[in-house]
C-alpha cells in the first residue's frame, strides 16, 4: 500500500513539474522544473522496479547505507567546491580569466555564490547529515527512525543543492548572502529539513541509552535553529508560480537586520554547533580517550546557543541599523569568546595522556589542528566585532581571511578527520589505504590555509589603511582602483594556497576510494549491529 502511495505522489510531482516547465516564465525556473521532473521520474521507476522485492530493514542493524552515501557525497562536493574556489581566486587575481564567451554564466559574479553554497551547504551539509546519522545511532543504541526517511533526507537535500547551483548559473537568486536560492527551492529545503528533524528526533525518542550524549545536543540545536533562521529570513512572495522571481517581505534596514541575524547564525549553528557535535564524538573516539570535562561540554553548549543568536548585528556597524542594536551584537560577540575557548580547551585536553598519538596518527593531528583553528577564529571574530577594529576591517579582505581560516581550518579539517575515521568502519576495512597520503593531505591543507589566511590578513589591513588615508587637506589619497592593484600579489598567493588545499582534497578522495577498493575486508570491524537491551 505504501509503495502505491509513493508512486501516486511521485507521478503527481513529475506531471506538475512538466506543466511548470511548459509554462515557465524564465530559463532558470524551466531548468529547475525539468530537474524536478527527472528526479521524480527516476524515483518513480525505482519504486516500480523494486515493488514486492525489497526486504524489510533488519531492526537489529544500524542504518549505515545512508551514512555511506553521505560520505561519498561529502567527498565529491568537497572537491567540486574547492575547484570552483580555485577558479574564482584566479579570476580575481587575473581578471582576463573572466572569459568573454562565458559572461553571464561562468564569470566571477555567478561562480562565487556557487562556490559558497558548494562548500558550506553541499560539502558541509552532507558531512553534518551523514555524521549526525552515524552519531545519533551509536550514542542511542538504536536504528535510525523512519525507515526510508533517511534516504529521503539524503536525496532531497542533494536535489536542493543541484536546484540551487543551476539556479545561480542561470540567474535565479535572492542576492542574500548564504540564502541565495529562490522561493520554490526554499520551500523544498524546508520539507527536507523537517524530515531530517523527524529522523533525528525519532531516533533519540526510541533510544536504548538513557543519557543523551552532548554531541546530539549540538546536532539538535543546529537542526532546530537553522530551520527557524531559514523560514524567517526567506519569507518572500512569488511574483508568479511559474517564475523564479520573488519579492522579499522585509525591506530596508529590517531586511538587513534579518539577513545578518540569519547570516551570522548560519555560521554559529551550521558551521559551529553542528561541527562541534562532530568534535565531541569523533575526537574522543580517534584519541581513544573520554571527553576531558563532560561538565564543561554542557556549559559550552548552553552558553554557546544562548549567546550566538544575539551576535548578528555586529555585521552592521556604522550603517542605518540603530546604534544600540549593533552595540548589543558587539557585546554578545565579545562574551561569546569565553564559551568558545572553553570548548576548544575541552577538545584539546581530551588528548591528555595521548599526546604521543600526534606523532604517529595524522588523523588525530588533523582533528587537533581543526580545534586550534576553531579557537583562533573564535578569538578573531569577537575582536573584529569591536567597533574600533571593525572600522578598519569591515568590507575588506581581512574578513575573507577570517572566514576562510575558520572554514578551511575548523570545518574542513574536522570533516577530513571525520571522513578518515568513518570510511574504514562503514565499509568494514582493515584501515586506511595510506597514512602517508593522510600526512601529505594534512601538510598541503595546513600550508594552503596559512598562505590563504596570511595573504588576506595583509591584503585586508592594507586595504583598510589605504581607504582611510587622507592628505594634509583631508582629501582621500587613494582611488579604489589603487587598492585593487596593490592587492594583486596577495590575490596570487591566496590562489596558490587554494591550489594546495584542492590538491589535498583530491589526495583524500583517492585515499578513501583506495581504502574501499583495495583494503581487505575485516568482519570484526563491522559495527552494523545494534546493541541488545
TrEMBL record:
<feature type="transmembrane region" description="Helical">
    <location>
        <begin position="261"/>
        <end position="282"/>
    </location>
</feature>
<dbReference type="Pfam" id="PF00115">
    <property type="entry name" value="COX1"/>
</dbReference>
<dbReference type="InterPro" id="IPR004677">
    <property type="entry name" value="Cyt_c_oxidase_cbb3_su1"/>
</dbReference>
<dbReference type="InterPro" id="IPR036927">
    <property type="entry name" value="Cyt_c_oxase-like_su1_sf"/>
</dbReference>
<keyword id="KW-1003">Cell membrane</keyword>
<feature type="transmembrane region" description="Helical">
    <location>
        <begin position="363"/>
        <end position="386"/>
    </location>
</feature>
<feature type="transmembrane region" description="Helical">
    <location>
        <begin position="30"/>
        <end position="48"/>
    </location>
</feature>
<comment type="similarity">
    <text>Belongs to the heme-copper respiratory oxidase family.</text>
</comment>
<feature type="transmembrane region" description="Helical">
    <location>
        <begin position="331"/>
        <end position="351"/>
    </location>
</feature>
<feature type="domain" description="Cytochrome oxidase subunit I profile">
    <location>
        <begin position="1"/>
        <end position="533"/>
    </location>
</feature>
<keyword id="KW-1278">Translocase</keyword>
<keyword id="KW-0812">Transmembrane</keyword>
<dbReference type="InterPro" id="IPR000883">
    <property type="entry name" value="Cyt_C_Oxase_1"/>
</dbReference>
<comment type="pathway">
    <text>Energy metabolism; oxidative phosphorylation.</text>
</comment>
<feature type="transmembrane region" description="Helical">
    <location>
        <begin position="69"/>
        <end position="94"/>
    </location>
</feature>
<keyword id="KW-0679">Respiratory chain</keyword>
<keyword id="KW-0479">Metal-binding</keyword>
<feature type="transmembrane region" description="Helical">
    <location>
        <begin position="183"/>
        <end position="205"/>
    </location>
</feature>
<dbReference type="InterPro" id="IPR023616">
    <property type="entry name" value="Cyt_c_oxase-like_su1_dom"/>
</dbReference>
<keyword id="KW-1133">Transmembrane helix</keyword>
<keyword id="KW-0472">Membrane</keyword>
<keyword id="KW-0186">Copper</keyword>
<feature type="transmembrane region" description="Helical">
    <location>
        <begin position="491"/>
        <end position="513"/>
    </location>
</feature>
<protein>
    <recommendedName>
        <fullName>cytochrome-c oxidase</fullName>
        <ecNumber>7.1.1.9</ecNumber>
    </recommendedName>
</protein>
<keyword id="KW-0813">Transport</keyword>
<keyword id="KW-0349">Heme</keyword>
<feature type="transmembrane region" description="Helical">
    <location>
        <begin position="440"/>
        <end position="462"/>
    </location>
</feature>
<feature type="transmembrane region" description="Helical">
    <location>
        <begin position="294"/>
        <end position="311"/>
    </location>
</feature>
<feature type="transmembrane region" description="Helical">
    <location>
        <begin position="406"/>
        <end position="428"/>
    </location>
</feature>
<keyword id="KW-0408">Iron</keyword>
<keyword id="KW-0249">Electron transport</keyword>
<feature type="transmembrane region" description="Helical">
    <location>
        <begin position="217"/>
        <end position="241"/>
    </location>
</feature>
<feature type="transmembrane region" description="Helical">
    <location>
        <begin position="148"/>
        <end position="171"/>
    </location>
</feature>
<feature type="transmembrane region" description="Helical">
    <location>
        <begin position="114"/>
        <end position="136"/>
    </location>
</feature>
<dbReference type="InterPro" id="IPR023615">
    <property type="entry name" value="Cyt_c_Oxase_su1_BS"/>
</dbReference>
